[in-house]
Design brief:
This protein has 507 residues and is mainly α. It has 20 helices and 14 strands. The termini are far apart. The protein binds one RNA strand of 78 nucleotides through strand 7, strand 8, helix 6, strand 14 and helix 11.
RNA sequence: GGCGAGUUCGUCUAGUCGGCCUAGGACGUCAGGUUUUCAUCCUGAAGAUCAGGAGUUCGAAUCUCCUACUCGCUACCA
């Protein structure tokens, strides 16, 4: 049977990069095995719902190039795929569990539970609603049948809690961690169905995974502690449980904690695929897309954070990753996010792209700086500077002088290169360059070199001074190539201006 | 506190069921080289006694046990 896997985010905000990796692994696993990947939105917590989050999630995966086969925004035979739209479906399952003795109604109010917790705390203990305490609480196990019915009919608030069997070892077989065993006496009777008529994650998850014929649950390690509950639920329903794989966590670059929303802007890298503006606070969180990352680079980097192909290969397209992916090679320990490595990946992926492919990315960068230009000119410039780009957004910093003449000249470079009388020398050099019409890079180069040799000039000073006039600093690509791209006439203009500015100040 | 998981260079990791590991690669770092400049690029170097301890064994990063530390969970959140 072909596997069916799901990515099931909660629309409580922007999609975390750790979530992206979880989705990616699900995708890779599905594709590798000719399976199906579906997107389910788990919006059972109405209090945490954030408008726009769902759309954000869909857009993020579009940008990343991770397509879903089924689910919200796509459709499919197992919908609806939004849990809020499946609300009515869960209650009978909760009731069935109660009827079968796997769960019970609990009428304890939040205040009562709070009091219990405080009381336990004062004795330096922790209150847990479990096999040891449930008979002291207000529920269908302790109340009479009539009382329970009365309360239910009266419309009293209630929740449904899972009733763990006593002293039973629960085995979770995890594809990454192997056998995990825990005794039921240690577990608390989790709420399955809330008083607001919504299921909790646990119930909705199991019911939907079953109904949607999910074969493999690949999710974050934070779910490992509740996995025993989930296997018990499958047992209680008499359903075959899917295979579980709990992924290692993505850790923050400094310290050891889980990578969180705050870390991104604190450490200078995005934690979200796309920029996100919080609808309530208006606070902006940066995204990979807006920071100038290529989706291919983000995917490659993420794939290697907790997985490897078993050899030294690092550069891998989504297709290659799919080919090579296997759950067995997923590591157990959490992985720290590394900005340097992310930067390196992005640099590599930019190099892989042609100027034609890169140009569409650069046009917005230019626009932001008030520049519009010919596409061929742009491509020429890209060819010249792309090997020095780590991010798309570096383009302006690395290439602005191709579009706007410099107005300032790096004083350090001026001091070092532009010696007395340089203006006159450059006038001569410029005349040589202008003598080739149309511009001939090789000939111009040779002529200038000859001139420098004949006059016993310092090559570094002459050429860098000319560069200074064009760029405004001691940087940039090969001089004569650059002159060809910028254009001789423009170089002439810039030189005149530079001489005027630099020597004007001097005299 | 309880429960669970994890622990190889600064970071990501390789290390198939013990020997080929005097622990390999990549990022980063450092040093050279290329270049008229900067960046790129190339070459090289430093860098983990495999968390610590005990055991099994002719032989352990690889098996067993103990300890330590880190993380996760411990909500009518997911």
């Amino acid at each position: 049977m072909n596997p069916r896997v799901r990515f099931a985010p909660s629309p409580t905000g922007p999609l975390h990069i750790g979530g992206v990796r979880t989705a990616l692994y699900n995708y890779l696993f599905a594709k590798k095995n000719n399976g199906t990947l579906l997107l389910r939105i788990e919006d059972t917590d109405q209090t945490r719902f954030v408008p726009g989050a769902e759309q954000y999630i869909i857009e993020a995966f579009q940008w990343l190039g991770i397509p879903f086969d089924e689910g919200v925004g796509i459709g499919g035979d197992y919908g609806p795929y939004r849990q809020s739209e499946r609300k009515a479906l869960y209650k009978p399952y909760a009731e069935q569990l109660v009827a079968d003795g796997w769960a019970y109604y609990a009428f304890d109010t939040p205040e009562m539970l709070d009091a219990k917790r405080k009381e336990a705390e004062s004795q330096k203990k922790t209150f847990q609603y479990d096999v040891h305490t449930r008979m002291q609480m207000c529920n269908s196990l302790t109340l009479s049948e009539e009382e329970v019915q009365t309360r239910l009919q009266r419309g009293d608030a209630f929740v449904v809690r899972f009733k763990y069997p006593e002293n039973t070892d629960i085995h979770v077989h995890d594809l990454i961690r192997g056998e995990v065993v825990i005794n039921s006496n240690l577990l608390d009777d989790k709420v399955l169905y809330k008083s607001d008529g919504m299921p909790t994650y646990h119930l909705a998850n199991i019911v939907d995974d079953h109904l949607m014929k999910i074969t493999h649950v690949i999710r974050g390690e934070e779910w490992l502690p509740s996995a025993p509950l989930h296997v018990m639920l499958y047992k209680a329903f008499g359903w075959e449980a899917p295979q579980f794989a709990h992924l290692p966590l993505l850790l923050k670059p400094d310290g050891n904690g889980k990578l969180s929303k705050r870390d991104g802007d604190r450490l200078g890298f995005p934690v979200f695929p796309l920029q996100w503006i919080d609808p309530k606070s208006g606070e902006t969180s940066s995204g990979y897309r807006e920071s100038g990352y290529l989706p291919e680079a983000v995917i490659n980097m993420l794939a290697l954070l907790g997985w490897n192909p078993g050899n030294d290969q690092e550069m891998m397209s989504l297709e290659t990753l799919t080919e090579l992916f296997s759950i067995e090679k997923i590591s157990k320990a959490g992985a720290k996010f590394s900005l340097d490595k992310a930067k390196w990946f992005n640099h590599e992926y930019i190099q892989l792209k042609s100027a034609e492919e890169l140009a569409p990315y650069m046009i917005p960068v230019l626009k932001k700086n008030g520049v519009e230009c010919d596409i061929h000119y742009l491509q020429n410039v890209i060819d010249l500077v792309k090997d020095r780009l780590n991010f798309i957004n570096d383009f302006w910093d690395q290439a602005c002088y191709f579009f706007v003449a410099p107005t300032e000249y790096d004083p350090q470079a001026v001091k070092k290169r532009w010696k007395e009388g340089m203006g006159d020398i450059l006038q001569e050099v410029m005349k040589l360059i202008e003598s080739f019409v149309p511009y001939d890079q090789q000939k111009a180069h040779d002529a200038v070199m000859q001139y420098i040799a004949d006059h016993e000039l310092n090559m570094g000073q002459v050429l860098n001074s000319l560069r200074l006039a064009i760029v405004g600093a001691a940087r940039g690509p090969e001089l004569f190539t650059m002159i060809g791209v910028v254009g001789v006439q423009e170089v002439r203009n810039r030189l005149d201006k530079a001489i005027q500015t630099i020597e004007g100040v001097r005299s």
